[in-house]
UniProtKB/TrEMBL annotation:
Organism, as annotated: Kaistia nematophila
Primary localization class, coarse: membrane
One of the protein's GO biological processes: xenobiotic detoxification by transmembrane export across the plasma membrane
NCBIfam families per record: efflux_Bcr_CflA
Protein name: Bcr/CflA family efflux transporter
TM helices/strands, residue ranges: 21-46, 58-76, 88-107, 113-134, 146-168, 174-192, 226-244, 256-280, 292-314, 320-339, 360-379, 385-404
UniProt signal peptide: none
Membrane topology: Multi-pass membrane protein
Recorded GO MF terms: xenobiotic transmembrane transporter activity
Amino acid sequence: MSVLSERAPARLAPEPSFFEFVVIIAFMMALGSMSIDNLLPAFGHIQQDFGLASANEVQLILTVYMAGFAVMQLFYGPVSDIVGRRPTLMIGLIIFSIGSLIALFAPNFEMLLVARLIQGMGAAATRILSVAIVRDRYEGREMARVMSFTMMIFIIVPVFAPAIGSLFLLFGTWHTIFVSMLVIAVGIALWFGRRMPETLHPEYRMPFSAARILGGAKRCLQERATVGYSTAIGLMFGGLMAYIGSSQQIFETEVYGLGAIFPVVFGSIAAVMGIASFVNVRIVRRLGMRRISHAGVCGHVLMSAIMVGCAIWFDGKPPLLLFAVNLAACQFLFSLTMPNFNTMAMEPLGDIAGTASSMIGFYTTILGTIVGMVIGQMFNGTVLPLAVGFLATGVLSLIVVYWTERGRLFAPHHPDPAAVMDVGH
């Protein structure tokens, strides 16, 4: 299995095993997901406590979080290329913890939104650093394989997060959920600090230079694969954000009225995404990233079209089982595309992995947040806006991928040494 370069800096602790490395990275990524998904069952409580007129207003809790998450990604990547991955992550976790504390004592909804903005600004470090650290150690199909392992563990979080949030609500208020976020952030900081060595290679460490940072950003914009696959990620991520934002209204209250069963349905659909990540792990070396992800986006378009047809046929409220199976199929195919799209976007930029991760993360998150907000705010008591949103983002993603590959879909790029051996960067 790939190991850190012999030229890596001295470390204070033994290098973690492959399994521990994947789990640490997965928990880093999961902090952002947990901060979204375990709060979903509390939407109704928050609306009631602050006297909000519309349930759609509560979706702003997600929107402002993702806005802070997006903007700060521009900061963490370049900083991590200058000072290293470890101190940059700790800065992010401190900011996240401050936001969690503010949320605990928020006297009104506006202050809660400020707290969520700060949380998002801190959580951005976990997303940027997780991708950069994986890119420090792996490349090509092996990187895609590691990212899929990570995603497989990462997906476990939304499976259980809403149920955990509901459990907290049984024994406390929505404030208890923010306490759990604070505890998780502190736990990640302690674990990472004790077990993860610095992965930034000395020869890639940048002195502070605005020109150098701008040069790295310019390189990201000049790479066709980076621009194309990042755009496709952002569009499809927008569909996912719209689903997360409106899932509580769809399943728990307005469409299907499942009440306390909502976390079970949400978690079951999320589990399908975990299965897709496992499938990708098993086949990506053999079939390659392009064959799998291109098939995934084509299948996503097809299933989204079926979802639209069902929504129209049943006046916006198809039978629960039919809708859930259709949605799960879309999410399965989504999870076949994302790790591979992300790997292909990062692949040409290994020597500026931090800056590249920042640029890609900022762009995909901003695009996804805007698209998701537009679709989510169109919720009208039916599943039709979500279905149409899935179809639109899928079609646009397919068009972008077609442009990126110059019309050559499903064609692997050669040579790809990672297909036949493990590689270290």
